[in-house]
Amino acid sequence: MTMAQESYQKLSASTKRRNRRHKLKSILSQTQNNLANNSNNIDHKSHPEITKDSNKNFIVNHNILGDVQDSLLKNKIEENIKMSSTDNKSRDDVMAARQAKKLAKQKGKGKEPVQNEIKEQNIAKPVAPKSEPAPSTEKKVTKEEQKPVKELNKEPTSKGKDEVDRAVKVDPIIEGADRSKEDIKAERAAKKAAKQAKKKGATEGERVEEVKVPEKPAVKEVSKQVNEDMTVKDVVETLRDIAIVAKEMKEVTVKVSAIDLSGKKAEESNKSKAELKAERRAKQEAQRAAKQAAQEKAAAAAKPKVEAKSAEGDAVKVKEDKAQKQKTLEKAKVKTGNGHRVNWFQHLYKEHDKEALKSIAINSNLHPAIVKLGVQLASKVVSGSNARCVALLDALKKMVRDYTLPAKTEFARGLESHLATSLDFLWAMRSPSASQTNAIKFFRYHLTQLPNNVDEFDAKKTLQEEIDRYIKEQIDMAGEAISITVRNKIADGDNILTYGCSSLIERILRDAWSAGLKFRTVVVGNRVHTGATDMLRRLVAHGLPCTYIDITSLSSVMDKVNKVVLGASALLVNGSVLGAAGTAQVALGAQAYNVPVLVACETHKFSERVQTDAFVYNEIGDPDDLIDKSDENSPLKDWRSNPNLTPLNLTYDVTPPSLVTAVVTELAILPCTSAPVVLRFKLSEYGV
Amino acid sequence: MKKEEVQEIFLKILKEEEDVSAGVAAIRTLLSVIENYKVATVRELDLNLQLAVDAMKHCDQPVTAISSGCELFMRFITFAKLDVKSFEECEQIMLQRGHIFLNTLLEARGKVANIAAHAINDGYRILTHSRSRVVLQAMLQAAKANKRFKVFVTMSGPDNSGLLMQKQLEEAGIDVTLILDAAVGYIMEQVDLVLLGAEGVTENGGIINKIGTYSLGMAAHELKKPVFVLTESFKFSRIYPLNEMDLPKEFKYLSSVIKSGKDLSKEHPLVDYTPPVYITLLFTDLGILSPSAVSDELMKLYL
């Protein structure tokens, strides 16, 4: 592979990544809108319909993709991700695609993979050929585009600089509207880092002999300079990683890149939206710059190699240095990996080892819907107990529909093994919630209930119907029943306090408001998990009078509150409530002020687990979420380089039954000590 | 069938047989409705019963026991209509079931008293609130078993029903002291055991009972005295009050007061809700239950 080709590949890869991120972002907003819409229309629209719609989309996209697939076989996963995005194609999407197109044009004229990328994204509209004049607003870009490709290699430094600058320029044009302070900051930082890297590259070109020796101090210098800014530190780290990757070009086979991508997705999973946005942009900038740097470096390194043919010793030295440097880097990496773990939560980190996620094999046996769901779960695009459950069931339905029975296999057994591999993948992306576990239990139950000699068609039909029924009865109708029950508990003039984001609570409050009850809602949120603000937005849009407070000021409003209504992730068999981190604190506050606490929880979220605290089972979120982005001098900023500092971001907590007045289920209002009764009842009724 | 006729039957039972609680009286009224008012269809019968229940709720008697008793009765007998052919057959089965149901109810009090009498030990000083038939019967039974114990009975305003309780206990030769409602805190430290009746038992194992029970429960809890509630299982009802305010006003006030349109905040509530934390055990005909087991039993009955 020549240098040029390599660089093309890298460029196209980065474009892809960029596109995908934009997509992801747009899906995120799309999902939110959808969620709002869904709950808006919940009376008119039943779940099966929704799922049918998405099915339709799915098929269409699949067909379209098939056309392009040949040229893009090597990046199967990316397609899946795109499928998800094309599902919800929106204005955002188109914008993102346009931008991607523009960037791609700037960078690599006549590069097939990029073109294909664009084609795939803009399937709806005809793809303009390379030579076609761009719209007037893009004139500048078009000019750039016409620069011969050779230039890229001839004048790497100037080109690199241009590119970074331009990227910074182009970005605000397109995204100007939703650019936040953070973004700008991140960009600036990235730019700075990129310049540093370039400078480094330039010096390296001059002193070939010393290339490797000053490498490490140089990096240190960079990190020192930018130590004050967390984002820049990230950038430098990424730079470093990318430098290694550039050196190991030979190893970058198609498969590895595929796995790497999935790993990356997972890595990004635990970040908040805003941060994701900022970080992504920073990373992109850095990557581009780094590529330039790496290219130059590689070019520079190649030169001495040619010279070294006459002087072997030098070449060996360079190689040795390379190896050494790599080792030290790896060591450092490992150190940071293990050092930042809170002792009592060691057992939780294992599941979320980013390296482990990378090593998950995505084989072709997995249904695209499953892979898509996996990515959505890992990136928390799909979050919330109900949404996760519905998404899982929907994916299962698609999987069942498209399942082809191998010869001489019993349907149930064949599908069971297929299911097992799919679940292994999904649970590795994010450990299952109680609702998902129960849904799977239900699905397996019906799978085993199938008669031995069942016809494949009939079996599929039965299973799909059962899934639809489950969604309808256990989630939709249950939600309605709970909504009615809680509504009867709300009196006119009440102040209802709720915490965090729950689709069920939102539905309850909106239904109650629509039913004509006059009450005030106090939404309690926290800075780290921003779900509450999303719910607040939707409640306010629905016309509810709302108050928003941070959890820190809970005690100052609690004396005015009449009822606390909380959502739950799971209700455990000992009566404890597994909820979003902070739920227990709100319940405790309510108890201190003698305010009744209602937990709204459908019975499909009841779990057979027993847990008395949040240590045994929990999920570790992204520690970076804890950093206050608006605070320049946040002491948490450089926690990665400080071995004495370990941020811990837990996802769940456990509320003891003594703090909960009642659990509202679709069966009845119950004390939470009645959880075993419900489970027993469900066992006798549904066999699950 | 007229509303007034039903009310008449109901009030007559209550008046003539003092020993019958409102819940049982309500069920007997419903049975007589089935017997006396001949109808041709199940639907008509259903409507009749609904009307009768509604009528009874509006005749100035405490509603709690009536509503839970009727609800259970309807559930118990109406299953009959699902699996018979002719209406006559159905009616017969309903009546039969109704009588079976009534008999179990009548036996229930004896059962509860039997179990609870064992909880009364020699030398105990027992505090009770207002007048409860089942508490009375348990005490009489314990006295019959030659246990010597002392009873404190609250006067229990506004109807001073404690006076009747005192009289009946004295007749049985039990050492009894009438105390003021306000003296509950004063007397609590001398007491070994608190025995309470209940008008209704809520889903979470709390009780709805004569006003004053809540404060008595709190005092007992504070001084760590065991609180036993004696109740028949037909008083278990599917309501779940979150606090006193959340208790339906039909339970708290007589129907005449509600109808009069007076400012209810100026009226005396007749019952209050005692949360399960203040209750140690419930003695029922189903056995001795912890408060949290009530919802288990209710699930069995209704789901």
Walkthrough of the structure:
The complex is a heterodimer of chains A (688) and B (303). Chain A is built from 26 helices and eleven strands. Chain A is an alpha/beta fold. Chain A has four domains: 1-32 and 49-126, no CATH class; 186-265 and 273-326; 358-475, Four Helix Bundle (Hemerythrin (Met), subunit A) (Up-down Bundle); 490-614 and 650-686, Translation initiation factor eif-2b, domain 2 (Rossmann fold), CATH 3.40.50. Chain A is globular, with a radius of gyration of 27 Å. Chain A starts with a helix and ends with a helix. With 303 residues, chain B is of the alpha/beta class. Chain B folds into two domains: 3-111, Four Helix Bundle (Hemerythrin (Met), subunit A) (Up-down Bundle), CATH 1.20.120.1070; 115-302, 3-Layer(aba) Sandwich (Rossmann fold). Chain B is 49% helix and 13% strand. Chain B contains twelve helices and ten strands. In chain B, the strands form two sheets. Chain B has a seven-stranded mixed sheet with strand order 3-2-1-4-7-9-10, with helices on both faces. Chain B is globular and about 60 Å long. Chain B starts with a helix and ends with a helix. The model of chain B has no long low-confidence stretch (mean pLDDT 91). Classes of the chains: A alpha/beta (688), B alpha/beta (303). The A-B interface holds A 489, 491, 563, 596, 598, 661-662, 667-671, 673-674, 677-678, 681 and B 203-205, 238, 240, 242-243, 245-246, 276, 292, 295-296, 298-299, 302-303.
